[in-house]
Amino acid sequence: MHYGELKKCDIANGIGVRVTLFVSGCTNRCPDCFQPQTWDFDYGKEFTEDTKAEIFAELDKPFVNGLTVLGGEPFEPRNQRELLPLLREVKAKYPVKTIWCFTGFRLDDELLADGSYPRCEATDEMLACIDVLVDGQVVSHKGIDVSKHQGNIDWTKVAADGVEFAFIRVGLRGYGTEGKLVEDEYFEQNIKGALQAGIKVGVYFYSQAITDAELLEEANLVLEKIKPYNVELPIVYDVEKVSGGKGRANDLSVEDRTRLTALFCQTVQDAGYKPMIYHNMEMATLMLDLGQLEQYDKWFAYYNDDLYYPYAYKVWQYTEKGAVDGINEEVDLNIWFGDF
Predict the structure, then answer these.
(1) Secondary structure string (H, E, C) spanning 95-151
(2) What is the pLDDT of residues 202-229, one digit of tens each?
(3) Which of 93, 98, 293, 317 would bridge 131 by S-S if both were Cys, CB 3.0 to 4.6 A apart?
(4) Within 10 A of 245 (CB to CB), how many other CB atoms are there?
């Protein structure tokens, strides 16, 4: 068996700090797979006794909650036969630590169904070793977010390039002391074009509100602008720190920024729409109390390969330098996890 990566301090694939093994090989070949290179059973490094020793050395640490196995595809029959001895030993050696497994196969009609492709002589015992099984093929959707900076967009070409959703900027509040509201001059053109092309839309507003009155002014502007349109996806509160120290909202306390964010979301929700919060790592860890905002979906911006993030999020903005047919400028690319 080969593996693509061994993460020794992972908080993204199960509860708590975990050791995560990404095995190689997958015949599911899901569309829009994040790591198609892992379909190859020979991808990465060979799993050896030294690899197992590395795993056990990490599991020996008291703060590590357990082992997670994903891929590739752990329940490929040839991978099951190699993984089962490892899982047996983990269960025996660390009985209070949990084993999680992510698989593209469905439990009831594939892993437990006699005669199905993944079911083999190792399946039942492997399932018995696993504490939490996340099954079924991953459902995700490709999307973008746009503003005047993308210029004129050919939305028919965008849809043909596989884009299923778009967040469209309604406007922003200026950074200066006056903090004037500015409507995005391409909003009407963009939302009409996206909807006509069959793309689902949400909208966002870049906020610099520092008082409740300013916040409500922003929210009400958004609600007024979207009235004529079928906005199925969330209305997003874009909360960011302006670089260079120029943002009028940069000096808000965590408590005030969190309160304003909640007020925007509640106002949107009261109007019958779904709210969402856009933020990056700095905002999440230093400038918002996300514990007070758990009831609202999150849109998280993070552009590096390794993602360690302890909060749930619905949408991941993974690059600001994307290319999409029909858009001449660079554009943010996003993944929506799960069904719309």
Answers:
(1) CCCEEEEECCCCHHHHHCCCCCCCCCCCHHHHHHHCCEEECCCCCEEEEEEECHHHC
(2) 999 999 999 999 999 999 999 999 999 9
(3) 98
(4) 8
Q: 128 Cβ partners below 8 Å, 6+ apart? A: none
Q: Rounded distance, CA 165 to CA 297, Å?
A: 16
DSSP assigned state of 242: P
Closest CA to 146 of 94, 107, 201, 100: 201
Q: How far is 2 from 205, CA to CA, in rounded Å?
A: 46
Q: How far apart are CA 219 and CA 263, in angstroms?
A: 9
CA dihedral 111, 114, 118, 122 (to 10 degrees): 80
Burial of 120 (0-12, 13-18, 19+ CB in 10 A): middle
Query: Pick from 231, 247, 227, 230: which is nearest to 239 by CA?
Result: 247
Give backbone dihedrals phi and psi of 47, rounded to 5 degrees, phi first. -80, 120
Per the model's pLDDT, the better-predicted residue between 340 and 123 turns out to be 123
Instruction: Provide Rg for the chain, Cα atoms.
Output: 23
Burial class of 229 by CB neighbour count within 10 A (0 to 12, 13 to 18, 19+) = middle
CA angle 203-251-216, nearest 5°?
40
Would the pLDDT of 187 be above 80?
yes
Question: How is residue 76 written in tokens?
Answer: 């490929």
Q: DSSP states of 14-37 as a string?
A: SSSEEEEEEE---S---TT-S-GG
Report the amino acid identity of residue 77.
P
Closest CA to 170 of 199, 211, 207: 207
What are the pLDDT digits (tens) for 266-286?
Answer: 999 999 999 999 999 999 889
Burial class (CB in 10 A: 0-12, 13-18, 19+), 295: exposed
Residue 205 β-bridge partners: 171, 237
